[in-house]
Amino acid sequence: RDGDRLEEEEAVERVLLWEKSWRPCPRARRWLQGCLGFVRRQLFRVGEDWYFLFALGVLMAMISFMTDLIVFRLYEAHRWLYREIGDYAVLKYLSWTMYPVALAAFSTGFSQSITPHSGGSGIPELKTILMGVMLEDYLAIKNFGAKVVGLICTLACGSTIFLGKVGPYVHISAMLAAYLGKMRTSVTKEYEDKFKQNEMLVAAQAVGVATVFGAPISGVLFSIEVMASHFAVRDYWRGFFAATCGAFMFRLLAVFNSEQETIIALFKTNLKLDFPFDLWETFFFLALGVVCGVVACAYLFCQRWLLGYVKENKFTAKLLRTDKPIYTVLVVLLLASITFPPSLGQFMASQLTMKEYLMSFFDNHTWGELARSAPAGSPDGPHLLWQEWCHPSVSFFGTLAFFLVMKFWMLILATTLPLPAGYFMPIFVYGAALGRLAGETVAALFPQGITVGYPIIPGGYALAGAAAFSGAVTHSVSTALLACEATGQLAWALPITAAVLAANGVAQKWQPSFYDGTIIVKRLPYLPRIRSRHMASYRVLVEEFMNRRVLSLAKTAAFSEVLAALTATPATADFPVVESAELPTLVGTVSRTELVAFLQSHGSDGEKPSGTVGDDCAIEPIMLQLSPWTSLHQTHHLFELLKLQQLFVTRGGELVGAVTRDEVRTA
């Protein structure tokens, strides 16, 4: 046995020696290793942010494309079921209503069973996080799966509940960025601070918008306007690079899937480019912007009121607290019954998808002329999208007006559903319908055009209405560029921007934005902007709203005083330290952890406690203080820019009070 073991060991040694000695072309191998090392050094010299942002954009594009593919299959299955069920009215009604009801109920139950943070848009909570307030488990990876699966089921409901995907995609992109950041930290063994995390979250927002519309430039600008109170210019390239990667890959996947021949705009339009609009039409575009602003104010007020009412009403509050799927079933059943095509749905073109709605509104033809040349329902002409808006007993003016009236309250009701959903795309479509109605009205008033020979193009008004209404609801101007970029119609940029500015001027004067209103109703710890620009608001000083009853510790404070301070304020994280009770000059702050360690080290073994805070605790110096005569605007700017939670107020170096986010919010 010993001889066999020795033979085996010798054989192993011979094999190892042979493998070590047989290395052909040593010079070529050394050259190749040197080249690989040089490439590795150059790649890391550029910075790992590039690879992180590229991966984020590509992954989000793949998620967006696969989601759209699955949603399309599910929606086509619903259409097939409704079409093949026959002419039995009861069966057609059940197939139309039960399909979205089941999907919406599953979306609510599945997402809420995993985490309650998966419901809604996600943008209000993300705004709160970017303000420096961390919400627990909001960016956890378990929320990722719940959001994606729930969103697919929500979108598959189609025009029944009429909800979108922009907000959830921003949330999904933020979760993916947070997870990739943790992976990068574990690989590089480097500490990732909060500033680095915020930089990646800002880039993730742009990717979320860009992968929905395939519009990287407006995606970056929209994410900055909607979610960032202050923006660091150094983060600009991160957002554009990640958004460009995501948008390019999203449109490239459509080419690979044979949906398109090349990379083009998401919504195909054929609006006239040689003479897009008459100069005198600018006044009509401004009037359209004012109308969109007024309607947006009404929408924002009613939406915020209904969201609060649903939470306060005993019946609906109980359902939302204990039986959310039941609440979803009741609301979706109501919406589906109203959109049932043989009933009221025939006056709202309820069988169109959200993309088909936009394609019909952006049509470059005038529906009045098409209706005269090829009446709806004529067997000779092809069934085009515009014919969905024509009814034998009602003109398309009536169907558009009925659509606007019904969708106004149906959209508001749908925002109360506790499922993953976005709210930007519905208001974008609603604004397009508003603009189409205005454009068709102008075209009817001026059949030959304001200048004879240059007819009115209602599709341009639909484009302006979509940008103006969505911009007014979200308080953003970048929707003008978004509308142009998503349709490829940059020739209409001037009238669209004029309409957006007019709509924003009205909406921002009277109502908070959609996302700020949701923050108010949900009572998230978010610092709202100061809406008043009156001179009197600049005369509001810190001494009028600061907290004067601040518990401080002297440097000579002993065991008993520290124990009393910790017992009296269980929620305080940092305590101000002053020289002495007689001379309250602010020295710095000491953390609660330090004070607990002080008590544990000086109160053990039954000995008489000794030592003081000044001698035995680490006192952190204070870099920023407020004066009692600092204005509210300056204080608000500091809290917003530096993401602060608390600032101390001193007069001549002596501590006189403190200001927290709660005091600033109340003021």
How would you describe what is shown here?
- It is built from 26 helices and five strands.
- The protein is mainly α and 667 residues long.
- Mean pLDDT is 81; it is low at 376-383.
- A hairpin with a 7-residue loop joins β2 (574-578) and β3.
- α3 packs parallel to α6 (141-156) and α19 packs antiparallel against α20 (493-510).
- The protein is 61% helix and 4% strand.
- The termini are far apart.
- The chain is globular and about 95 Å long.
- It has a three-stranded mixed sheet with strand order 1-2-3.
- The protein has three domains: 49-257, Clc chloride channel (Orthogonal Bundle), CATH 1.10.3080; 280-325 and 349-367 and 386-522, Clc chloride channel, CATH 1.10.3080.10; 542-666, CBS-domain (Roll).
- It has helices at 2-21, 26-46, 49-84, 89-114, 123-130, 141-156, 166-188, 194-213, 216-227, 236-256, 281-312, 314-322, 324-338, 354-361, 367-373, 396-414, 424-445, 458-474, 479-487, 493-510, 514-522, 559-568, 592-602, 613-616, 632-642, 661-666; strands at residues 553-554, 574-578, 586-591, 646-651, 654-660.
- One of its GO terms (cellular component) is chloride channel complex.
- It is found in: Cell membrane.
- Keywords: CBS domain, Cell membrane, Chloride, Chloride channel, Ion channel, Ion transport, Membrane, Metal-binding, Repeat, Transmembrane, Transmembrane helix, Transport.
- InterPro entries: CBS_dom_sf, Cl-channel_core, Cl_channel-K, Cl_channel_volt-gated, ClC.
- The chain crosses the membrane at residues 50-72, 148-180, 201-224, 236-256, 277-306, 326-349.
